Each structure stands twice: as structure tokens, then as C-alpha cells.
């Protein structure tokens, strides 16, 4: 997923997951092969109908400058999504990291999350800022061997295995040549999960 055609393909996929659906944003967390395996923000789509320029919806260019300039000051959800770009998840840590290892999707509801005693990593991961901005449902899906997709909705969206399968199906054709012939740590861990 490193080439520009793959990058534009990724943006189209993320956009397609939000258009004419209940999902307000889609983020792709890419698995990075380093000394310790991590998932980092690769790209995102945010469906902001209040945006004057519709071309601004599809990605987050110049995120750092926009955060510091106050660009998102009147858009709490845009700010929450932009802040996610700073997160890095270790494989197996936090909800995103655990989904990557287990291969099992997670459906998270704001009302259950807010009323439960939240662990420190969930606060750190920015869940609270998303919920405070109006997000009611977050779904996190592993797309082996690429990484993880995260969607957020302003509505309570009940678990839908068809959506999970659709997300995995649309990512299947995107092949990253760097992992094409080598089993990824995500694939290996799914065969014998270390965290079960």
C-alpha cells in the first residue's frame, strides 16, 4: 500500500465505507514492521457535511499545522479524528492492537463505554474525545495482513457481521508487495493467538 495508486485506492475504500452509510469516519491503521510491531495512521476519511469544500472531506492534509492553527476549533469530531493521527499502537496493546492480533472485530458503544470504568489505555487512545464529539459507535476490524480499519458513527449501530466481512473483502485486493510472500505477524498470531 505504499504506491500513490495504492494510496488513492485506499482513500477510495475509506470513503466508500462512509458514503451513504451511518459511518462518519474511517481510519486505516497500517501494520509497520519494525523492531517492535506497531500500527500507525496510514490514511482516513471524514464525512463532514458542514465542510464548504467537499474535496476537504477525503483526507487530512497538513494535520499538524491545522491542529495548531485552530482549524478544527469549531469541529470537535474533526479535531478528535485529526488527533488520532498521532496514535501508535503496539501489536497486542489497546483495542486496535488487540484486534490486530486476535483478528476478532470489536464493536464499542459510547453508552456502555462511558458508564463502565474505563481503563487508562482507552482514555489515552482518544476514545473519550470521540465520544464527547458525538460518536456513539466505533467498530474496529482487522484486515490481514495490512492492519486495522476503524469506523465511527454518530448513531448507535448494532453489530453487523456482513459489514465486517465487507470491510475485509474490500481490503483483500490491496496487496502490499513487502508482505506478499511472507506470513505477517498478524497472520501467524491468528493461527495461534498469544493473547487468548
TrEMBL record:
Residues 10-171 form the Transcription factor MYC/MYB N-terminal domain. One of its GO terms (molecular function) is DNA-binding transcription factor activity. Keywords: Transcription, Transcription regulation. InterPro entries: LHW-like, MYC/MYB_N. Pfam families: bHLH-MYC_N (PF14215). This is Transcription factor bHLH155-like.
Amino acid at each position: 500500500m505504499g504506491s500513490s495508486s495504492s494510496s488513492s485506492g485506499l482513500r477510495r475504500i475509506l470513503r466508500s465505507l462512509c458514503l451513504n452509510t451511518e459511518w462518519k469516519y474511517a481510519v486505516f491503521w497500517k501494520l509497520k514492521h519494525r523492531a517492535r510491531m506497531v500500527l500507525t495512521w496510514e490514511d482516513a476519511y471524514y464525512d463532514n457535511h458542514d465542510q464548504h469544500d467537499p474535496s476537504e472531506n477525503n483526507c487530512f492534509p497538513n494535520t499538524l499545522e491545522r491542529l495548531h492553527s485552530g482549524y478544527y476549533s469549531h469541529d470537535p469530531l474533526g479535531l478528535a479524528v485529526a488527533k488520532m493521527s498521532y496514535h501508535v499502537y503496539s501489536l497486542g496493546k489497546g483495542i486496535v492492537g488487540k484486534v490486530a492480533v486476535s483478528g476478532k472485530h470489536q464493536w464499542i458503544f459510547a453508552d456502555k463505554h462511558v458508564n463502565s470504568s474505563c481503563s487508562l489505555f482507552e482514555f489515552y487512545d482518544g476514545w473519550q474525545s470521540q465520544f464527547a464529539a458525538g460518536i456513539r459507535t466505533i467498530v474496529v476490524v482487522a484486515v490481514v495482513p495490512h492492519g486495522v480499519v476503524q469506523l465511527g458513527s454518530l448513531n448507535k449501530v448494532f453489530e453487523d457481521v456482513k459489514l465486517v466481512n465487507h470491510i475485509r473483502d474490500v481490503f483483500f485486493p490491496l496487496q502490499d508487495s513487502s508482505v506478499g510472500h511472507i506470513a505477517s505477524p498478524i497472520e501467524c498470531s491468528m493461527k495461534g493467538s498469544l493473547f487468548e
